[in-house]
Amino acid sequence: MNSIILRTEIQERIGEIGEADILVGIPSFNNAGTIGHVVKAVQAGFAKYFPDKKCVLINSDGGSTDGTMGVVQDTAIDDSSSILFYHRKGPIFKISTPYHGIPGKGSAFRTIFQIAEVLNVKACAVVDSDLRSITPEWLELLIKPVIQDEFDYVAPLYHRHKYDGTITNSIVYPLTRALYGKRVRQPIGGDFGFSGRLARFYLTKDVWGTDVAKYGIDIWMTTVAIASGFKVCQAFLGAKIHDPKDPGADLSAMLYQVVSSAFGLMDFYSETWKSVTNSEPVPTFGFQYAVGLEPVAVNVERMIERFSLGVRELMDIWKEILPGEVAGFLRKVSEQPIESFRIPDEVWVEIIYNFALAFHRQTINKEHLLKSLTPLYIGRTASFVRETWESGASEVEEKIEGLCLMFEEKKSFIAEKWDT
Predict the structure, then answer these.
(1) In a 3-state reduction of DSSP, which class is residue 192?
(2) What is the CATH number of domain 3-285?
(3) What is the CA radius of gyration of the chain?
(4) Which of 110, 123, 225, 273 sits a CA distance of 20 to 30 A from 191?
């Protein structure tokens, strides 16, 4: 058994369980206010949809000081009639354990993968600990495609507020789709289903000392599953409502780790993505319906100020990475009034592909490179907000589709330059 799960009480608990059919992991760090609801939803999902399966809930905690692990242990379903479940044939097992390694979600997942391997589980899922919209049905949608249809990876599909998930919408989804040819809409959604076979495969990869151990884990899991030829689908889960994140706030650490992982994977899987010429939909489970979404606060003025500050302070770095006409455009747009501020799709795609090339060629220090991307991302997000302020959800999705097609159209640029 791996050293990360060598704590005596965890070994004993795993020994008591022996083997299991289904495992659901919840990574956490100071989530005492929200994790109780998530644990109840998971327990109810086990009871309602998998009454005859041996089910285990794992809380992999990053050293919470607010009693998160205690909430997990103390939470139980207190009103069985409210979820209308069949009588379970056995107990639901719970393990709450601190993880070890680099602080971050990836290290938490590694512990979950390791326990899944030891328990020889057939199907797994991971769900975020700050979810307020999770229902028992999420368990059915994330796990049944693995058990019944032999999918190895189930990505989430949600309705989200048009300004929630801007890193996904502007970079990760269009880039991943163009590179690997699968239209997985939420490649860093945070809530996934996967087979025990894929969990074991993840453990064979030597990435746990990198940014994958932090925020980079979600894009890594999705990309590895697609690029390695595992059977991939997505499941509609309804609304994604969680602790809100202002897209203009400081997301630089998350942006850095996610993009670092995505660009690093481009190096590793270059022979795979260079042979992909177009994208295709993946099978989608679940009944799609309109949902009410909580608003996301956006301060466009502040975002454009941060972009303009970046132009003044980082242009010397950008000139080493970007074509002269793109650098010139950025300088020009930073001098324009807010009402005419716009960074078009074709310019944005050129920026991302040229940053990917600079990362691959190690043109400059990778950390400096990726941190200099933050003001550009904030500027692009401000442009997107301005263009979609009056738009409904379907119009916004059409705009994102247009960006994806631009990434696909311009992919030949990076494929041709990759090895030169």
Answers:
(1) strand
(2) 3.90.550.10
(3) 22
(4) 273
pTM above 0.85, yes or no: yes
* Structure token digits, residue 212: 């994958």
Q: Which of 41, 245, 235 is nearest to 132 (CA)?
A: 41
Please give the Cα distance from 287 to 292 (Å, whole number): 16
Query: What single-letter DSSP state applies at residue 316?
Result: H
16, pLDDT greater than 60 = yes
Q: Cα separations (Å) of 387 from 345, 390, 396, 399? A: 12, 8, 9, 9
The predicted structure's pLDDT at residue 297: 74
Tell me the residue type at 339.
E
pLDDT digits (tens, 9 = 90+) for 55-104: 999 999 998 999 999 999 998 875 555 555 555 667 889 999 988 788 88
Given a contact cutoff of 8 angstroms between Cβ atoms, the answer to whether 57 and 43 are in contact is: yes
Sheet containing 192-195: order of strands: 93-98, 55-61, 22-28, 123-126, 192-195, 153-159, 232-239, 284-285
Write the pLDDT tens digit of every residue in 220-269: 999 999 999 999 999 999 988 776 554 445 578 889 989 999 999 999 99
User: How confident is the model over 365-390, as pLDDT tens digits?
Assistant: 999 999 999 999 999 999 999 999 88
Nearest to 214 by CA among 255, 270, 179, 181: 255
Give the residue range(s) of CATH 3.90.550.10 domains in the chain. 3-285
Cα distance between residue 229 and residue 199, in whole Å: 14
